[in-house]
Amino acid sequence: MSETQLRVLSLNCWGLKYVAKNRPERIAAIARALASSSHDIVALQEIWVSADYALVRNSVASRLPYAKYFYSGALGAGLAIFSRFPIIAATIHPYSLNGSPIDVTAGDWFVGKAAASVLISHPLLGQVQVFNTHLFAKGGEEGPDYNRAHRLVNAWEFAKLARQSAELGRYVIAAGDFNSVPNTLPMNIIRDHAGLSDAWQVSHPALHTSSTPPSPSGAISAFGVTADSPLNSYSSGKPLEGMARRFGGKRLDYIFFRQPTKPPASDKTPILTCTNSNVMFTDRVPGQEFSFSDHFGLEATFEIRFPAEDVESVYHAEPTMPTAGAQSRGSIAISSTSNISSSVPSSLTAESIVPILQSLTACYRYSKSRARMHLTIFASCIVLLLGLIISSAWLPRSWFSPIFVFAAVVVAWLATTMLYVGFVYGRWEVNALMNVIEELEIMRGGIGTRYDSRSDR
């Protein structure tokens, strides 16, 4: 295998125990597919069962001998990275905001969404930091501004980590389920502040311009659809958002990359370029009627080039139209001969920060109001408990006692929950939002230019 080529795969496995359909069969099929693939780095999300991780690791150990499974939150981060190259360090950064502890149906708070990363030693690139993440799920572009704030905080923290890694002189590859379609605020933060290039956009510079909606397979080829596709057995037939219906699904999974900010001083500094990206695992599991996951996978192929190989062509090559490749088992492949500049995109501008601050500020005010409501409920529960205790002395019948005890337990549980959510979590959420707001205000040109955080403390 040529060391000048690097193949990366990202896949959301939908591996939540007891909830995800056909999980054992699907994970086994994913493990078999990965064992026969030629990827150098594999990033998996939603692989929450440790036995599933062990199955995948044993299947790919001969090809990808280095692996890291990450733990976070009460149920684990669900993130794993497998590598052909030695892992010399690993870390995980749980996001400051992951939803509310009382939002049990969403579950993000319990799993502890995070940015995980490994530092690998590549024979040509040197140190490469590989990130794997799964951003906060709820809070799309529709609805109130405060619904988007937690995902924006995730994106901001992820972008800072990637940027800092590049400033340490490392190459950066970032993969995962970002739960956001292109050109939304979270993706703009990640691309612009971290200086990351989108592998799909680089290798697919041509846009679908026809007024006729593409077919489901055409949507995958044109837009890189990885979720809510009619071709996916778990999406087919379910009600979809307007964007998913219009574009044949949504692109939520990405692979990003960038060069070091300060590469080693040498006229032989390698340049990382993306030459190809494919949507993977689009077929059904062999012998079954269901898909590998509720998401498709995404792979990117990178070439490592050196100044002696005409770096000017890498910096200034005109993009060419992608050519359709043949559809292979489990993938729809699109090739491109276009190259990418290693220059870093500009950071967030003052204008681009404004809508981000609007969402964060709306959530800040909403969080303070919600915390007061929860504390009011706590105080009401205390009053009700006192009433139950006092009235228990005048119970007319003995069989009322179990009812009073049960009611007291329920009210005490509610009071404890409201105290934690209103005071502990409420302060945590407000402080986390304030930290990001002030960082963005500093970047924008000074605290208080749009929103004076100190006035609400």
Automatic annotation (TrEMBL):
One of its GO terms (biological process) is sphingolipid metabolic process. GO terms for molecular function: metal ion binding; sphingomyelin phosphodiesterase activity. Gene3D superfamilies: Endonuclease/exonuclease/phosphatase. GO terms for cellular component: membrane. The chain crosses the membrane at residues 375-395, 401-425. It holds the Pfam family Exo_endo_phos. InterPro entries: Endo/exonu/phosph_ase_sf, Endo/exonuclease/phosphatase, Sph/SMPD2-like. Pathway: Lipid metabolism; sphingolipid metabolism; Sphingolipid metabolism. Keywords: Hydrolase, Lipid metabolism, Magnesium, Membrane, Metal-binding, Sphingolipid metabolism, Transmembrane, Transmembrane helix. It is found in: Membrane. Belongs to the neutral sphingomyelinase family. This is Endonuclease/exonuclease/phosphatase domain-containing protein.
